[in-house]
Write a structure and sequence with these properties.
This protein is of the alpha/beta class. Helix content is about 25%, strand content about 35%. The protein has six helices and eleven strands. Strands 7-6-5-8-9-11-10 form a seven-stranded mixed β-sheet, with helices on both faces. A hairpin with a 2-residue loop joins strand 1 and strand 2. It starts with 12 loop residues before the first strand and ends with a strand.
């Protein structure tokens, strides 16, 4: 994708369809993202390695989108912040059911895909912000915070919890999805220690003829 956000030969592209409660969502994604693991990887000044995970369509994003579709009647007019939006699937589903979505990602190119995917699903209204969740750039709070597979590294936990303290409405809910990673228990222990409660549910999703179980967590202020 070029900087104007339309598909181009900058990446090899493929198109995929996701069906949620008999509604079809169309996504343009990077074909064979494994080839970019080395070429798009980079380190910051402290030597922290950033891998191009945004180039993958993760099962957790589909699980989060499924959860939102199942609970679509609660989304109308809600202000939603999606962190690490990648291809934008969860935010697109929320917007389709009337939410006002702000898509954020550390990677600029991910936001180009999210915007394009929003447009091809007839979701024309949205805000797209390049943002590091350890340094959020918003003054307002949101009714809902979404994150698909964003808690896989312990070094991110404090930043995400701080973001929830600062940006989640006191009566709001954060919804996280993750594929049953072993270290997730540590994150949700920390959630409890920092003044939040959570409820867990499980959904099954299919991707590329494989079935995966995804954990969904609804996090709220105590």
């Amino acid at each position: 994708m070029k900087r104007h956000g339309r598909p181009s030969l900058d990446y090899p592209l493929k198109h995929t369809e996701i069906f949620l409660n008999n509604r079809r969502f169309q996504l343009t994604v990077v074909d064979d993202p494994d080839q970019y693991l080395e070429t798009l990887s980079k380190e910051d000044v402290e030597g922290t390695l950033f891998l191009p995970y945004w180039t993958y369509l993760w099962e957790s994003s589909i699980g989060l989108a499924q959860y939102l579709s199942d609970n679509r009647t609660t989304l109308s007019n809600k202000s939603i912040l999606e962190i690490g939006c990648g291809y934008g699937l969860a935010g697109i589903v929320a917007a389709k059911f009337g939410a006002k979505v702000t898509y954020t990602d550390f990677e600029h190119d991910a936001l180009l895909f999210a915007r394009h995917n929003s447009q091809q699903n007839d979701v024309s209204v949205g805000t797209y912000v390049q943002m590091d969740w350890s340094a959020p750039c918003f003054q307002n709070r949101f009714d809902v915070v979404l994150g698909a597979d964003v808690i896989y590294e312990e070094q991110n936990w404090d930043s995400i919890i701080e973001l929830l303290h600062n940006l989640l409405e006191l009566k709001g809910v954060a919804i996280f999805s993750e594929p049953n990673r072993k270290n997730a228990d540590g994150f949700f222990k920390l959630i409890r220690e920092n003044g939040f409660t959570f409820k867990k549910s499980i959904c099954s999703i299919s991707l590329q003829e494989k079935t995966a179980k995804i954990n969904l967590f609804q996090v709220k202020h105590e």
